[in-house]
């Protein structure tokens, strides 16, 4: 049975399948990966689906190769994606950095499981959130989304591709074992109703092409491999022509621009959901599966008359610095529940800078946070 | 309204598929929300295996089953592991040949020889579908049509007839059981 690219309709769908379907709907035609629990089903789905729509699936020898392969395919103009979990995400880091500096649009899905190392293969965690931001060496731009449901896995995969294409940068989808292995209703719209962004291509004189000369929006138009332009790509610090120029001045110009691509467009990229934040005394800042459960905790607190609110981060990176800082001026306490030993709470603390009390709410990897323990912390915060 | 459903057995029995079909009956063929999560050990076949489905009339914030309202048990190991979860009010559906319950086991217990029925139909692989038919008439969680649609839209095309028979077999057994209870 050959199915179309976009499976318009209502499905009872696995989260990992949904992220794959979102990728396909966004135009992904190439997937290179290595199976790993709990991300295997993303690869499994792609292995079945890509041949149906004229795409290519390759099972690679490892995650270094997977990441390298999707960069190569994207340079040839094919929207590309891979998926993994903690151990594989670590192996991908070097080439994620390469993707950032070569400015190659691509999407990496990390279905997080308990770590460190091989850790807890079949259990949930949110322990790769700082690795998402800082995992590769050097300074580089990153965008990371965090889905809270299979529906959001689908929607976010499309957004991730659009963001990757628009800003010419690798984009991460930081899923987790519970969202990835959860099956829920997923509604897939008509293909014509899905907004797709394509990368900016160079259409000038091939002889005058400078692969890293950016336009005013800081994004250089891309020439695809084989299209006739001379393209030189290197991980070394390079000039607008793509040639190595190894000095501080070039580093400042290139890396400054790379970072600014995300910093200056942060408002357009960032997404978060606000619930009851207007009059709140206590705010929960959460993301992914934890954000979803916090929703119930905040609702239960409101029923008890506690002015509680929720900021559910849909993009965790870039972090909504200005918004959280402003919010912190009017609240007493900010709670940060995470399934790790304290990661995004550090960013919240940094941003809040003492304007409100920031409390870490630790859920040990391997356990799914329950709304009642979160409610207890909300109650304690307003005492 | 929240109903927590748990199905437990061993890998290869179609426990995950069973949970998927229950969730689909709720989320696609009834006007409810359903979230299924699955858990498994490192071994996929033969090891303990369970699927959990939360069904609500609203968006589900917490997708995990803490205290199942309906518990389907398809292996002795599953029963031994999950005894503490069975309360007075729990509806327990067991395969009577695969699970030997303790004397005086609490809960609303309904038993069916689902594996035997499946073997009678020629394929023991459909024991889970027999159980789902039984589930439908015993729990009345959703309509027969909803569950049947969920089964038939999930199984491979060439097995539809067999699965439909398996479903009806389990459904009728549940009806008879209820009739007997009402007569008591």
Secondary-structure blueprint of this entry?
The complex is a heterodimer of chains A (383) and B (184).
Chain A: E1 9-14, H1 15-26, E2 30-33, H2 40-49, E3 56-59, H3 63-75, E4 80-84, H4 86-102, E5 106-114, E6 120-124, H5 129-134, E7 143-145, H6 150-167, E8 170-176, H7 177-180, E9 182-188, H8 248-263, H9 266-269, E10 272-275, E11 282-287, H10 288-303, E12 308-313, E13 315-317, H11 321-328, E14 333-338, H12 344-352, E15 357-362, H13 371-382
Parallel strand pairs in A: 2-3, 2-4, 4-5, 5-8, 7-8, 11-12, 11-14, 14-15
Antiparallel strand pairs in A: 1-9, 5-6, 7-13, 10-12
Helix pairs in contact in A: 1-2, 1-6, 3-4, 10-13
Chain B: E1 2-10, H1 15-27, E2 33-40, E3 48-56, E4 70-73, H2 76-82, E5 91-95, E6 108-112, H3 114-120, H4 127-139, H5 144-152, H6 160-183
Parallel strand pairs in B: 1-4, 4-5, 5-6
Antiparallel strand pairs in B: 1-3, 2-3
What would your notes on this structure say?
The complex is a heterodimer of chains A (383) and B (184). Chain A has helices spanning 15-26, 40-49, 63-75, 86-102, 129-134, 150-167, 177-180, 248-263, 266-269, 288-303, 321-328, 344-352, 371-382; strands at 9-14, 30-33, 56-59, 80-84, 106-114, 120-124, 143-145, 170-176, 182-188, 272-275, 282-287, 308-313, 315-317, 333-338, 357-362. The mean pLDDT of chain A is 97. In chain A, β5 (106-114) and β6 form a beta hairpin. Chain A starts with 8 loop residues before the first strand and ends with a helix. The longest helix of chain A has 18 residues, at 150-167. Chain A contains 13 helices and 15 strands. Chain B is an alpha/beta fold. Chain B has one domain: Pyruvate-ferredoxin oxidoreductase, PFOR, domain III (Pyruvate-ferredoxin Oxidoreductase, domain 3), CATH 3.40.920. Chain B is built from 6 helices and 6 strands. Chain B has helices at 15-27, 76-82, 114-120, 127-139, 144-152, 160-183; strands at residues 2-10, 33-40, 48-56, 70-73, 91-95, 108-112. In chain B, α4 packs antiparallel against α5, α4 packs parallel to α6 (160-183) and α5 packs antiparallel against α6 (160-183). The N and C termini of chain B lie far apart (30 Å). The mean pLDDT of chain B is 93. The A-B interface holds A 10-12, 121-122, 178, 181-185, 292-293, 295-296, 299, 368, 370-371 and B 20, 23-24, 27-28, 33-42, 60-64, 66.
């Amino acid at each position: 049975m050959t199915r179309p690219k976009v499976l318009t309709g209502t499905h009872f769908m696995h989260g990992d399948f949904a992220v794959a379907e979102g990728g396909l709907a966004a135009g992904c035609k190439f997937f290179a990966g290595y199976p790993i629990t709990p991300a295997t089903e993303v690869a499994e789905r792609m292995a079945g689906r890509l041949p149906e729509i004229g795409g290519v699936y390759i099972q690679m020898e490892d995650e270094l190769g997977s990441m390298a392969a999707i960069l190569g395919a994207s340079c040839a103009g094919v929207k590309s994606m891979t998926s993994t979990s903690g151990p594989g995400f670590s192996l991908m880091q070097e080439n994620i950095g390469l993707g950032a500096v070569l400015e190659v649009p691509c999407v990496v899905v990390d279905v997080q499981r308990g770590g460190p190392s091989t850790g807890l293969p079949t259990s949930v965690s949110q322990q790769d959130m700082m690795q998402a931001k800082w995992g590769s060496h050097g300074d580089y731009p990153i965008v990371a989304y965090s889905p809270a449901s299979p529906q959001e896995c689908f929607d976010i995969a499309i957004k991730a591709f659009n963001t990757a294409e628009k800003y010419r940068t690798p984009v991460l989808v930081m899923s987790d074992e519970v969202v990835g292995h959860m099956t829920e209703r997923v509604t897939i719209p008509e293909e014509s109703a899905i907004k797709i962004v394509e990368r900016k291509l160079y259409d000038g004189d091939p002889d005058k092409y400078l692969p890293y000369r950016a336009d005013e929006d800081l994004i250089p138009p891309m020439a695809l491999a084989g299209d006739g332009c001379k393209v030189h790509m290197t991980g070394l610090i390079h000039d607008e022509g793509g040639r190595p120029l190894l000095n501080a001045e070039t580093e400042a110009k290139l890396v400054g621009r790379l970072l600014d691509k995300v910093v200056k467009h942060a408002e357009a990229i960032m997404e978060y959901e606000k619930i009851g934040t207007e009059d709140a005394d206590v705010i929960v800042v959460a993301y992914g599966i934890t954000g979803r459960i916090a929703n119930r905790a905040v609702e239960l607190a409101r029923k008890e008359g506690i002015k509680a609110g929720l900021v559910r981060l849909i993009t965790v990176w870039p972090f909504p610095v200005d918004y959280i800082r402003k919010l912190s001026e009017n609240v007493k306490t900010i709670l940060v529940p995470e399934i790790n030993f304290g990661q995004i709470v550090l960013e919240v603390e940094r941003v809040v800078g003492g304007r409100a009390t920031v409390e870490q709410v630790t859920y040990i990897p391997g356990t799914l946070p329950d709304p009642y323990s979160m409610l207890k912390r909300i109650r304690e915060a307003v005492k | 309204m929240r109903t927590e459903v748990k199905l437990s057995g061993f890998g290869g029995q179609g426990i995950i598929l069973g949970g998927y079909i229950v969730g689909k009956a709720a989320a696609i063929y009834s006007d409810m929300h359903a979230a299924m999560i699955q858990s498994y050990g490192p071994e996929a076949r033969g090891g303990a295996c369970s699927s959990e489905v939360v069904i609500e009339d609203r968006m589900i914030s917490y997708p995990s089953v803490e205290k199942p309202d309906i518990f389907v048990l398809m292996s002795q190991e599953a029963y031994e592991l999950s005894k503490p979860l069975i309360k007075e009010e729990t509806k327990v559906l067991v395969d009577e040949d695969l699970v030997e319950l303790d004397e005086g086991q609490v809960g609303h217990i309904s038993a069916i020889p689902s594996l035997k029925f499946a073997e009678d139909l020629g394929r023991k692989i459909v024991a889970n579908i027999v159980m789902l038919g039984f589930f439908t008439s015993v729990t009345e969680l959703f309509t027969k049509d909803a569950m049947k649609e969920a089964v038939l839209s999930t199984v491979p095309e060439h097995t539809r007839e067999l699965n439909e028979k398996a479903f009806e077999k389990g459904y009728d057994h549940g009806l008879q059981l209820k009739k007997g209870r009402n007569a008591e």
